[in-house]
Write a structure and sequence with these properties.
Elements (H helix, E strand, L loop, with lengths): L1 E7 L3 E5 L8 E4 L2 E4 L1 H4 L15 E5 L2 E5 L1 H5 L14 H11 L4 E9 L4 H15 L2 E6 L2 E14 L2 H10 L10 E7 L4 E7 L2 E2 L5 E3 L3 H9 L10 H7 L7 E2 L8 E2 L4 H19 L6 E5 H17 L3 E4 L6 H20 L1
Parallel strand pairs: 1-7, 7-9, 10-16, 16-17
Antiparallel strand pairs: 1-2, 2-3, 4-6, 5-6, 5-8, 8-9, 10-11, 11-12, 11-13, 14-15
Helix pairs in contact: 5-10, 8-9
Length: about 350
């Protein structure tokens, strides 16, 4: 039975069906409901277009464009929405991309804003996913049954992945560890004691990359903080960060504004993390696209606070890869107890 792991990031949906990072995919999180006739208009080129740039499917009489295609149709990243919204469409698209069919297991993550919220959204997610689904992916019929399905707190996969990779993090299993997963919509702050998720000492904070992109956009006339092109430009290497908003005649050199914004934001972020950190925590795992972006500053600031700091690698994919490892262990445990 295939096992599909999906990280419902607000910048991008990440997915994998194994533990090889090179086989994981990253798809912009934009979703656009589009009429079936309109979404089928690209079917003539389906065999030639790059699949991850041309994702569309039909489900229960509706058409959906995802990723860059959805952005071309005018969809934004959906900042502020619950990640349960559009989750089913995103999972089906990932299953279609990997050419999965029949019964498959799935594992996903949700922000841990509170126990009540997590339990409620988890039940909503399970009710959406756990059943047979028939859909058309890029013009080809697909039938899948998602069962079993696991939902874990966002960030937990990064702990599993970092511990599994060994190296300097080989002894994390016997310690109290903080996971600081800096995503687009939330920064997930988890405490994990010897593999136990400490519910009462964990939470998600809505101070994350979305706020940073807003601050960047304020410095650029005509910029939209949810623009995929702006987000890509911010995350390019130094010297390659030029961005031209639609309608503007000249690009902006982001290297002129990013260093000061990054340092100030990292300092504010680290202060929030330190004010939250339980006293027993000895190590911190930094994860997520934001974790990699702010790593040079956060490593220094958190080391000064007396922590041993580890960067999950690959940071952006650690959650989805770790979720897959977690669900694999769950499958093996269920077989042993059967």
């Amino acid at each position: 039975m295939a096992l599909l792991s999906v990280d419902l990031g607000r910048t991008a949906t990440k997915a994998c069906v194994g533990r090889n990072p090179e086989e994981a995919v990253i798809i912009p999180s934009n979703v656009a409901p589009v009429g079936v006739d309109r979404v089928r208009q690209g079917s003539f080129e389906a065999g030639f277009a790059e699949p991850l740039w041309d994702i569309w499917l039909e489900y229960q009489g509706g058409g959906y464009a995802l990723g860059q295609l959805a952005a071309d149709f005018g969809a934004d990243l959906g900042v502020g929405q619950s990640k349960v919204e559009d989750a089913l469409v995103k999972v089906l698209a990932c299953a279609g991309h990997y050419r999965l069919s029949g019964r498959i297991a799935a594992v996903l993550g949700l922000p841990y804003l509170s126990q009540e919220q997590f339990d409620r959204e988890k039940e909503q997610m399970l009710s959406l996913l756990r059943s047979p689904h028939i859909f058309s992916y890029r013009g080809k019929a697909v039938a899948v049954e998602l069962d079993p399905v696991w939902v874990v707190p966002e960030g937990y996969g990064s702990f599993v992945w970092t511990e599994a990779c060994g190296g300097s993090a080989a002894e994390l299993l016997g310690r109290s560890v903080a996971v600081i997963d800096i995503g687009h919509q939330t920064t997930d702050l988890l405490t994990i004691d010897r593999f136990r998720f400490a519910r009462a000492a964990s939470r998600s904070d809505d101070f994350a990359m979305d706020e940073f992109y807003r601050r960047v956009a304020k410095n650029i006339p005509g910029a939209d903080s949810q623009s995929l092109a702006l987000i890509e430009a911010v995350n390019r290497p130094e010297g390659q960060r030029r961005f031209r908003p639609r309608g503007e005649s000249q690009p902006t050199d982001l290297d002129q504004i990013l260093p000061n914004l990054r340092r100030a934001f990292a300092k504010e972020l680290s202060q929030r993390c330190i004010s939250w950190l339980p006293e027993r925590v000895t190590d911190a795992i930094i994860s997520g696209g934001g974790g990699e972006f702010f790593w040079p500053d956060l490593e220094t600031l958190l080391t000064e606070a007396g922590l041993q700091v580890h960067l999950a690698a690959p940071s952006r994919l650690a959650n989805v890869l770790g979720q897959h490892a977690y669900a694999t262990a769950m499958v093996r445990a269920s077989k042993r107890s059967a």
